[in-house]
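Continuing the batch. This is chain 6 of the set; chains 1 through 5 are on the previous pages. Same settings as before, nothing changed between runs. Recording input and output for traceability.
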Amino acid sequence: NGTSIIGIAVGVSLAVLFLILCVIIIILIIISIIVFILVLKKKKKQQNLPQDSIGMSESNSLQFFKEGINSSISKYIIEPSDLQFSEKLAKGAFGIVYRGLWRKQHVAIKELKVSSSSEEDQEAFQKVLQELKNEIQTLSLLRHKNIVNFMGVCIKPPDTYAIVTEFIEGG
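Output for chain 6:
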C-alpha cells in the first residue's frame, strides 16, 4: 500500500507540473500575440505619411522628419548653411554624392533629389521621404569601426534632402 500511495503522489505531482507548464505556455503565447500586435501598430503608425506633402515648407519638412522617429534624431538635423560642398564624387538615380566640409571635418554628402511638383509625383515623393526617414533611423543607431559614421541630415525644401556621413578617403 505504501508504494501505491507514493505512485499516486508522483502521478498527482506530474499532473500538477504538466498543468503549470501548460499555463506558462499559454501565458507566453498571449504575451507573444500582444507584442506582435503592438509591433504591427507601431510599423503602421510609422508608415502613415502626411497627405499634403506637395510643396512642403521648410518647417513642415522638419516636422515630417521629427514625427514618428526617435526623438534623439532631431540632434542630427544640419542647417544647409553649415555645409560646404566641394567635388562631386558620384551620381546615381536618386541623387549625387559630394565631398564636403561640416564643422571643419571632411564629410560625404549624399544629396537626394526628390520632386513633389505634381500630383503624379506625390506618391513617389512620400515613399522616398519615408525611405530616407528609415535610413536616418538606422544609420543613427550604427556605430562601428568598419561603418562610416552618420553625421546628420540636411533638409532644403522643396526638393533636396541630404544625408551627411563621415568621409573615408578611397571609400
